[in-house]
Amino acid sequence: MKTSGQVMRVCVAAALATLAGTAVAGGLAIGTQSGSGTGNAFAGGAASAEDASTVWYNPAGMTVLPGKTNFSIAAHAIKPSFKFQNTASTLAAGTGEGGDGGDWAVIPQAFFTTKLTDKWSIGAAFNTPFGLKTEYDAGWRGQVIANKSSLKTYNLNVSAAYKFNDVVSLGGGLNYQRVELEFNAVTPFGLFGPTLSDNGYGYNAGALFQLQPQTRLGLHYRSAINFQATGSLTAPAALGGNGSATAGLTAPNNFSISLFHALNPRWDLMADVTWTGWSHLKSLNVVRTSGALAGASATLLTFNWTDTWRTSIGANFKPNDAWKIRFGVALDKTPTNDVDRTARVPDQDRTWIAVGAQYKVSNAGKLDFAYAHEFIKDASVNNASPFGGRLIGNFNNQADIFSVQYSHSF
After folding, report:
1. Domain 2-409 indexed as CATH 2.40.160.60
2. Claim: this prediction has a pTM higher than 0.85
3. How far is the first Cα of the chain from the last one, in angstroms, to the nearest whole number?
4. In the chain, where are the structural domains located?
């Protein structure tokens, strides 16, 4: 069908646009994976199934979408802020607090679903599930600990779902994910750091239960993905010189339980609990693979992260047939700890406050706008330099998210 082909081309273009930027939210996770979900702080994510973004949050939800074919295109402007305040640092080189380690990032996403029969549905999601970028002012006091850190991921999730009856639907999918990692520090001998990348594969599975006409329960699991990233190492001669390197890392698994309830024709209520297996990320050991030092560790980043829980509640109010007003709050625990937390990822516990609105531009089209503010606890760091001295202080953090999404059903 011509229209379907046009939609797919738009989705692919949006997927390629994810190369433009990344941002950090909750460890290394990007918590904004749909424009409609932002206004509810992603409460009810695995149960809401109100547009094509359900292909990411719970593919079983594809079976209850309106019409035959649905697509959603979203974009998020995200501004994290990480401002260091020195208390007792003893590093020999560098001055200043580093400015704001966070910066604006734009995250596009695209989702597409279609029903093959009354029972079978298929779909695809193009998105960026994990990301990080912190970069501090040149010459700052912590440059030997952290200068620039960047993690980018690009994900393609293809899924299928089957509706057994009016109560139970099941869905599952396969994920192709690319990771690109770059970080460096300014040592007394010059710039030092790796640039690495790899491709990995994982899976996801979900179930949707229509408990009552007004109530849905959603369950969703997403697997971990293992990477053995390879690439280059920039290093001054005094530290072994340039060469090639490798490092193993794992994108975490997660599990969500969500509830959606239409209280009455005007109000919807929703809730979500999501567990994320951040304990996979204990350390990142970058090993040389060339030269006389092949097999030796070039640098080791210690994380010792722990598994986390994220809880959220939300509501929708429909004042009329054209508008829907969204609200949501969430508590997002950090996987970091006060001993191993670094200036590269100065994360702490987050509280989300979110609002949004949806306007029906036609019988088939919906436009969503949303805003969320993340109140982030101050994050303490006490990082030792391999060249002597320590970076000791606190990061004052916050984040703002602006989302827009267009969804269409036909």
Report:
1. yes
2. yes
3. 12
4. 2-409
